[in-house]
Hints:
Distance between the termini of chain B: 37 Å
Number of domains of chain A: 2
CATH class of chain B: Mainly Beta
Number of strands of chain A: 24
CATH architecture of chain B: Clam
Oligomer: heterodimer
Radius of gyration of chain B: 18 Å
Mean pLDDT of chain A: 89
Helix content of chain A: 25-40%
Structural class of chain A: alpha+beta
Mean pLDDT of chain B: 88
CATH class of the largest domain in chain A: Alpha Beta
CATH superfamily of the largest domain in chain A: 2-enoyl-CoA Hydratase, Chain A, domain 1
Low-confidence stretches of chain B: 1-24
Strand order of the largest sheet of chain A: 13-14-15-19-20-24
Distance between the termini of chain A: 49 Å
Low-confidence stretches of chain A: 25-34, 36-44, 129-136
Number of helices of chain A: 14
CATH topology of chain B: outer membrane lipoprotein receptor (LolB), chain A
Largest sheet of chain A: 6 strands, mixed
Structural class of chain B: alpha+beta
CATH architecture of the largest domain in chain A: Alpha-Beta Complex
Largest interface: A-B, 57 and 69 residues
Strand content of chain B: over 45%
Shape of chain B: globular
Amino acid sequence: MPLLPVAASLLAASWLAACRSTVAPAALPALPAACGSAAGPALSTSLAALPVTNPLVTFDSAWSIIGRTHWDTTYNGVNWMAVRTELRPKAAGATTTGQLREVLSDMVSRLNQSHFSIIPREIADATGGSSSSGSGGAPAPDRSGSIGAEVRYLESTIVISRIDRDGPAARAGVQTGWRVQSVNGCPLSARLARMPKEPDARREALMAYSIATQALAGAVGDTATVVFTDARGADRTVRVARAPEPGVVAKFGNLPAMNAQLVFERVKSAGKTVGIIRFNIWMPILSPQFDAAIDSLRDADAIVLDLRGNFGGVGGMSMGIAGHFLDSTRTIGTMVQRGATLKFVVNPRRVDTRSRGVSPYAGPLAIVVDELSISTTEIFAGGMQALGRAQLFGVQTSGQALPSVPERLPNGDILYHAIADFLNPFGQPLEGAGVTPDRVVPLTRQGLLAGRDPALDAAVVWATMRREKQ
Amino acid sequence: MKALRSFAVATAALLLLSAPLSAQAAPSAADVIAKYVTAIGGKDAVMKITSLKQTSTMQLPAMGITAEIEAYQAAPNKMATKSSIPGVGEMLQGTNGEVAWDANPMAGARLLADKELAQMLEGADFYGNMLYLADRFTTMENLGVVDFNGEKSYKLKLVRKGSGIEATQYFSVATGLIVGAETAQVSQMGTMQVSSTLSDYKEFGGVKFPTKSEVNMGPNKMLMTITNVVINGAPATAFDIPAAVMPLIKK
Lengths: 470, 251
């Protein structure tokens, strides 16, 4: 039987557009020794000190893969052959896995594009939720525990932006808007001060976020001693036992295991019912949950999708989610590969989770984004905005939106590399530019301290007013 | 495997780059096809088959993903596949000879239309694809002998009658078996150039099927391995329209 349609569908189901562990900057500032290993550079992992064998085989493989698959035959203006000539001797001289990784990271960084990174095999192969590693080396440290709070980089500091309702931070009395000063005696300010200079504030915010989340994460059950500055400017020392992150562990191909979480709720505003759906990653394991959420909210007056801090994931999923909100076949963008241009086509979702015929949701749709809305999130939000189906709130997205794949190298590490550019329905690339909300509503510490969420609030108000007009 | 043969038939042609032998030296396309049918076991053996169940894997090495695929096909024009992908779930595709569907956990269910539908229906043409029946094509042309993957092969240009889809296929001069194909795969997202190599022919029910193939779609490589073929092993229910697709069928 013809398997090519299957192959085409499998491909469409597999293209990625980033995820948490692939867009975090590799060159994070290292911690002082006294601060332990909580936030070391991404490449300083448990196998970094191992002797490396045949470094040129891995180097040549990585160089060739990009040479063969990069959609732009000018390699973003980089002389790819010259990069090989320059770095190959350094790869040949690498004696440890860590040194080789540094050369490889240097190579992919020359492209100056998102979605190019080296994922150490001990991280890629970890199954998540424990310290296990499938790579045969020392286990990757368990970082699956969380204090149950999200952070953002505001006014050059790390601020608690959201707290899990029943998580450790909530139980310990932590409040949104509090500044994180230190974790286990290690001041964040010192690490933030050592961040590489970054002209793009969005990249700086991502780097700061990565530093803070690495510092706050740890083994489940371990206790973190965190010093906060509260609303009155007073320091508060809080001991928080890390708990498993809510949600499920998702493993997709060569990607590292990731926590995937979707929550939804109904809120009342001006006499209207608004459904709010939030999910942190585009992993297919969440698709059935999203479908179920839509089924539950079909009678809502409006829907708001909160995609702040959503780092992306499987690109193909964006089409399926968009289909819940579009009543005709539309295109949310185009993926330009070498030798192929493929449209991200959205088909209306006319069947519910119980196999009953339905119409796609037709009420007002608002999407909330921020500088940590990355990749597939940008593809989806930008597409829905361009089609006039959604109103966007928040701040400009990250501008990292290149379809990519995680390919295994001969040494076992993963070469995460982009294979295509992505254009919005107007033919404009999302890479670099990102998506600008229709209504820019930045997060502020004052708002958080007052218990408000200005961007989400604005989205809810717009949605209810829009419903009134319909 | 028939699956691979039939997809190759159903697909489209590429450039004709190689130097053909003279018309007198080359057998006709019909001769090449006849040799091929003999090589896989003969028309009589094929006609004893009314359905197939094949089990296979499809790997995307670049992604680290392996899908397990159950594929069914039955004469005259039915087929269905169920692909299980870790982390995604089950993807269903198929046709009962009238409608064709695609349903997966990420995108939901849809009915195929236009070129996709035509392509699916042609792919389900059981004997037409097994035997390369001449009345299925407007063009069957032998372009000569070329080197394909190190093997002297006849290069045939085939154009489907219904859809107009062209395919270039390579038949081993030595064995008569298909060793590769070049095509364009039509999908809703667009058209992708596809090249494939077929190998490791094994006999099931007196008919040879290629059990390994490497497929290149643009920069993406896929490896398909057929692990089993059950002759006449497709139950009628295999081609039932999936429940998730039923609401899309207009009464």
